[in-house]
Structure formats: structure tokens, C-alpha cells
Amino acid sequence: MTKKNIEMSVLVYTESEEGKFKKTAFEVASYAKGVADMMGTTVTAVSFNAKDTSELAQYGVNKVLKIDNDKLSKFNAEAYADALKQATEKEGAKVVVLGQTANDKYLAPLLAVHLGAGYASNVVELPANTDPLQVKRTAFTNKAFSITQISTDVKIVGLSKNAFGLKENPVELSEEEFSPSLASEDFKVNVVSVDKAADKVTIADAEIVVSGGRGLKGPENWGMIEDLAETLGAATACSKPVSDMGWRPHSEHVGQTGKPVAANLYIAVGISGAIQHLAGINASKTKVVINNDPEAPFFKAAEYGVVGDAFEIVPKLTEKLKEF
Ligand code: FAD
């Protein structure tokens, strides 16, 4: 076995919520392992208040720096960037990997400023080279790719959700308590509380999204969308006009001007497939459309399509799925 260069491990920020790792933590860890193998080094994760870090060993993490600090129990970009900077320097890391959640998108640019590092967001593949680091990223709301090089000493990579997937790669994991000295505990911005609909899968975390459009005729018909989503353990979403008309909350609007969706399965019901809608959802792996107009543009973008009346098809589909 060749000796690993542990002096400059790849650092990975593993996001958690209420003490539990989010799925993105395992995906970024899998990716960091891929980068570390290319560099002949190891992976160090930084965890903020995660209760059980042992699962990281499954995804190639060799060491975890455990931060247990009540002041950091809620995400705070300023303080987390400060702590990650110290972890990067302590480990001598040359590459830092994050995901692309809302928190990551806030955190990564701050960290880049603290470290004087170059940052490439929306990365979809392992780097072609690691020094300078050359990566492929999506551009123009997923309509194109760009090849980007980062030539700074420390490089930060933001991995697109679902682009790399989970890769099991069990290794031995060591844990180390880590207490970064925070410049100030008097943060400029504090999250006071997070108001989350109980038990609802959020669009950002969802593996499956069931989305409804104007073809559903009115808010009174959303029961069948919710029923299908609940059966699949999916999040619900909608097209822009649907939220504009107040049929559904704006938090469900997906597309170019709404939330991006990078799910494994996106089911579009009564949605025509306008370019602005597709721009926000086409990073999803498998797209299924149910529409009564065979000429609807969505059929060209989808992997699977059903031509027919949503009011007949959706309840039948849900009924069938409930049998499993
Ligand atoms: P429609 O286009 O009205 O389509 C309804 C579909 O339902 C039709 O294809 C019809 O055949 C089908 N249908 C009707 N009855 C049934 C039935 N019984 N069973 C099955 N199918 C049925 N849109 C977004 O979604 N997200 C965005 O982020 C977004 N951003 C925009 C930004 C800009 C600057 C602009 C100009 C527009 C944007 N839009 C966005 C709007 C977009 O152009 C479309 O108007 C919108 O996506 C259409 O929504 P829809 O598919 O629900 O409605």
C-alpha cells in the first residue's frame, strides 16, 4: 500500500441538522474520498454538533474533527466559516469540499475570503487535475457546462446535489474533539428559530418530487398530488403560475425563478414544460410527465411520459403504489 500524505488531507464540511447528518454530508464525503485518492491523501471531516459521527467511516472519512459547542448548534455562516478556516489550517488541507445547500451557498464564499481561496460552485464530476484543480461545473441554469481551473494554494469545491451520489468506501475512522477559538461569540446574524412544517419532506432534501401545474385546474384538486407524494415519501412542488395564483405556497414554486430541483425522480403533473420551468428542474435524474396534450414540450425533456388525464391517472398510480 502506498503511504498517504496525511499532512494535507482533503477537508469536508458535513452538514447536520438537530444532531443528525443530512444526506448531502455523505455525498460530499464520498466525493472528498475520490479527490483524496487522486491526491494520495486522506479525508478529514468537520462536524458541528453531530451526535453520531461513525457513519462517516462508510464513505471514506478517515478522521472527524468534532465540534461540540452549544453556541454553534444552529447554523451561523460567520462562525462556521471561522471554524472551518481553522480546521483547514490545522489539517494543512489544500482542498475543501462542501455541498450546494442553502447553508453551503452562504458559507463557501465567506470561507473563500477567509482563506484567500478560489471557489468553484455547482461542480458535477471529480476533477480532471488537482493542481491546478480543474473541474466541470454547470452553467446558465444547467443548460451548459464550464471547465474551471482554481490555481490558489487552497481550493474550495461546491458539489452539486445528486451529481456524484453516495459511494460506500469503508475505512477506519478516528475522532478528535476540536474547539476552534471564535473571533467573537457575539454573532452579527443569529437564527432565532426555524419554522418547519412537521414531517414534510423539503424540496431541497427530497429524493422524489411530485409537482403540479395549471392543468390541475384549482387548489381543491391538490389532494391527489399530496396523496401521491405521501405514498412515495416525496416533496410537493408546483409551477410558477400555480403559486402566483395562490393555489400553493411560494415555497413550492420551482424553476428558473423558483427553487432548483435536483431529485432522483421528478414527476410533473399537468405542467406544460416551459423553458423557465425546465431550467430549474432538469438537473433531476429521471423526469416523468403526465399530461393530456401529447404535444406538450415536457415530453421532449422527460425520460418517461404518460399521455392522459391526470385526474384519472394520478389516483390509479397512487393506488397501485400503495400495494407495494
Ligand atoms: P400551462 O402552461 O398552462 O400548462 C398546463 C398544462 O397542463 C398543459 O400542458 C396542459 O396540456 C396540461 N393539462 C391540462 N389539463 C390536464 C389534465 N386534465 N391532465 C393532464 N394534463 C393537463 N414557470 C415555472 O414553472 N417556474 C419558473 O421558475 C418560471 N419562471 C419564469 C420566469 C420568467 C421571466 C417568465 C417569463 C416565465 C416564467 N415561468 C416560470 C412561467 C413559464 O413560462 C410558464 O408560463 C409556466 O411554467 C406554465 O405553467 P404550467 O405548465 O403549470 O401551466
Write up what this structure looks like.
With 324 residues, this protein is an alpha/beta fold. It is 26% helix and 24% strand. The chain is built from eight helices and 17 strands. The strands form four sheets. It has a seven-stranded parallel β-sheet, sandwiched between helices. A five-stranded parallel β-sheet has the order 14-13-15-16-17. It has a three-stranded antiparallel β-sheet with strand order 8-9-10, covered by helices on one side. Helix 6 links the parallel strand 15 and strand 16. The model has no long low-confidence stretch (mean pLDDT 93). The structure holds flavin-adenine dinucleotide. Flavin-adenine dinucleotide binds next to helix 5, helix 6, strand 16 and helix 8. GO terms for molecular function: electron transfer activity; flavin adenine dinucleotide binding. Belongs to the ETF alpha-subunit/FixB family. Keywords: Electron transport, FAD, Flavoprotein, Transport.
Task: Please render the helix and strand layout as text.
Elements: E1 10-14, E2 16-17, E3 20-21, H1 23-39, E4 43-48, E5 63-67, H2 77-91, E6 95-98, H3 102-115, E7 118-123, E8 129-130, E9 133-139, E10 144-150, E11 155-159, E12 174-177, E13 208-212, H4 223-232, E14 235-238, H5 240-244, E15 265-269, H6 275-281, E16 286-291, H7 298-301, E17 304-307, H8 310-322
Helix pairs in contact: 2-3, 4-8
Binding site for FAD: 214, 270-277, 291
Pfam family, one: ETF
Keywords: Electron transport, FAD, Flavoprotein, Transport
